[in-house]
Amino acid sequence: MLKSIAVRVAQGTQTIPDPRRADPAGFRARPVIGAQPCEAGCSACAAACPTRAIEIEPLRIDLGRCVMCGDCEPVCPSGTLSFDNDFRIAATERDALVVSAARPSLDPVKVSAALHRRFGRSLKLRSVSAGGCNACELEVNALTNVNFDIGRYGIDIVASPRHADALVLTGPVTRNMAQALQLCWDGMPEPKLVIAVGACAISGGLFADSPALDRSFVERFTPSLYVPGCPPHPLTFISGILDLLGIDS
Amino acid sequence: MSALEPTLLLPAHEPAPLGLDDWAQACHAALAAGEQLVMLFGRPQADGSEAWLITAVLYSPAAGLRVLRSRAARGARYPALTAHFPAAQMAERELWEQTGLRPEGHPWLKPVRFEGERQQQMDAYPFFVVRGQEVHEVGVGPIHASVIEPGHFRFMCHGERVQHLEIQLGYQHRGVEALLLQRPPLALTPLVESIAGDASIAHAWAHCAAIEALAGVSVAPGVDQVRAVALELERIAMHLVALGGMATDIAFLQGGATYGRLRTAIINATQRVCGNRFGRGWLRPGGVRHAIDAARRQDLLDTLAAFARDFAQVNELMLGARSVRSRLRGTGIVSTQAARELGLVGLAARASGVARDSRHELPGHVYREHPLPLLTEDGGDCWARMRLRMREIDASLAWLQQQLQDVSSDLAGEALVPIGALRADRLCITVCEGFRGPVVQAVETGADGALLHYKVQDASMLNWFGLAIAVRDNEISDFPICNKSFDLSYCGNDL
User: Fold this and answer.
1) Set of chain B residues whose Cβ sits within 8 Å of the Cβ of A11
2) Which residues of A touch B284 (CB under 8 A)?
3) Which residues pair with B66 in a beta bridge?
4) How many CB atoms neighbour CB B123 within 10 A?
5) Diameter of chain B measured on Cα atoms
6) CB-based burial of residue B130 (10 Å sphere; 0-12 exposed, 13-18 middle, 19+ buried)?
7) Assigned CATH topology for domain A113-245
């Protein structure tokens, strides 16, 4: 009993007070396109990118593909590219995930009045990993730990699809998982939504060129929220979903 | 290179390939003499014929790593090694699935991951069947109750008692090995870091070592020292996942909460060094992208000191709780003999009293100069696997503190050594002891220096069968803690 109390005292309060205002030190999140212009004809960053997330002239980076590996930064001769720790990079539209010099930050996720009404006080998530490498899965799990504590906003992870409002999809969707994913979705009651977590789920990510994928599910059921990253930081997920549902933090 | 190097580089034509029967006999003799089968793979011959080139990678304490190669005609058969050495069962199943070569007399010849033409035929898996009155089957998955990767478990039960568990994997198959041949060899690290995302560092180190050896580049000792710091941080963080999971699975919630936040502290410290909580973007062929300067050193030391205090405290609570002991002691036993015969590796083997650790068997420079203790437990049960994770965390912690405190240790990490073209016609095998056990990679170049073959093996592939054995004669309700005590990778198996 005394040991238990001692552990509890040492634990203190670990919860991040306001996840929207956290400052994850060192996190390589949002690509920043600096003021220095690219060298004429240079495409070193695009060549170094493992997921073809970068297009040049003008420079655009698709966060739906970007794995934030940072391989582009050191090959850029003009020092145009860098990263900062702006984790608020979730979006409700696939096209909105692209950053450029003209649009350096993502637009804040807009509150959906319909989703706020239905799920603003309670949202149950069913996670399906369909080829996820366990990094996204660990970060989704971390949502419920004492640091991120997503339960305080009425958001929980549930076991049964029957109890779920949203399907949290991780992984590039392998052919071998396509059927099980569909069965899980079919088992969820209406109304329901898809949340795509990580570059793999959003675009196929590092595995986009593999013939072992069947991404038809993502084409048929457009996600309501895209949470980019490799893996996405739990803060990206939380701030994105709170914004979408209009929940105060 | 000495026998104790974790990297083996060979000209592709040495040793000369044997005929299939001679090769099988040579493998048999090696295993009978006590050598271990590390990896087995085949690739199509580069000459355009329909034949296959088979490679067995063997390990012995005296000789370190060596290979035996064979030419085999398409669809050829050979006497299965598994018939005499059960440890070969997964490797031979995989070889059969990937090449079509048939190990005659294999008692359990089933697909490992339903790749290639077998994709989406998961329903056709030939499950073992137990017949009899009051025998029933319980199928679980591929999607499980919590947030974990997919796989199907089928329990054959007599009442509550599990007679046998069959584990059907492959749902996570992403075609990693084929993808690794599609991109330039120097641009593969992000993909390698996603083979098993919780073992990003181990896989990345094995990959970097292979590319560096193939390019004829040697990195400064300080580079491997930083890599080892990264690897031991990963070991601590990922053992904490299993500890938290086990605590949660037995409703010891204080353990779950505390291990969870302790892990946050470790992975956030990793992020402060390299930008990512999983260590992605840290290691690259030719060196490390993020050095550990004086400020980072102090930051890591402060993090580890605070961690050590609270970790010891919660361990004491967990180990002292009667409820924990009664749930874990004697649950999910794998005997030393079974672990040996099944060829278990890494933590699962050590928890069953088998003293195997690549950091000792093939230490390389860093672990030779700065060894960690080789830790084992005798029990082979869930308790032993939990206890060993705690002890391995303590050992890694002490090791890290020593490295970081020692001002003479070089953690500056030079600028990345430029990597030129890879040498032609070479085969490179690398081994790196991740938190689950050895990650093994084999990379072969062709006549033009381009990659000809890339074989990846996570420790999980060899250890899944250990879980099946562990739950025999246990109650089905103990499966979750058995599973978490092994904490194996699904995608590491499925590739």
Assistant:
1) 257-258, 261, 310
2) 71
3) B58
4) 6
5) 69
6) middle
7) Rossmann fold (3.40.50)
How far is the alpha carbon of B133 from chain A, nearest alpha carbon, in Å?
Answer: 31
Low-confidence ranges of chain A (pLDDT < 70): none
Query: Which residues pair with residue B103 across a beta bridge?
Result: B78
User: Looking at residue B3, what is its pLDDT?
Assistant: 63
Amino acid at site B235: R
Render pLDDT for B270-309 as a digit per residue (tens, 0 to 9): 999 999 999 999 999 999 999 999 999 999 999 999 999 9
B1 pLDDT band (50/70/90 cuts)?
Answer: very low
Q: Find residue B56's DSSP bridge partners.
A: B40, B68
CB contact under 8 A, B317 and A3: yes
Domain ranges of chain A: 113-245
Alpha-carbon gap, residue A94 to B333, rounded angstroms: 49
Confidence label for B2 from pLDDT (cuts 50, 70 and 90): low
CA distances B418 to A162, B216, B285, B414, B415, Å, are 54, 11, 9, 11, 9
ipTM of the complex: 0.95
For B204-458, give the CATH class: mainly alpha
φ, ψ for residue B289, nearest 5 deg: -80, -25
What is the value of pTM for the model shown? 0.96
Contacts of A174 in chain B (CB under 8 A): 171-174, 494
- Rounded to whole angstroms, the Cα distance separating B130 from B24 reads 33
Domain ranges of chain B: 7-119, 204-458
Place of tokens 């004829």: B216
Token pair recorded at residue B39: 């990896």
Amino acid, res. B283:
L
Q: How far apart are CA B111 and CA B495, in angstroms?
A: 13
Q: Distance, in angstroms, between A91 CA and closest chain B CA?
A: 21
Residue holding tokens 């009899």?
B132
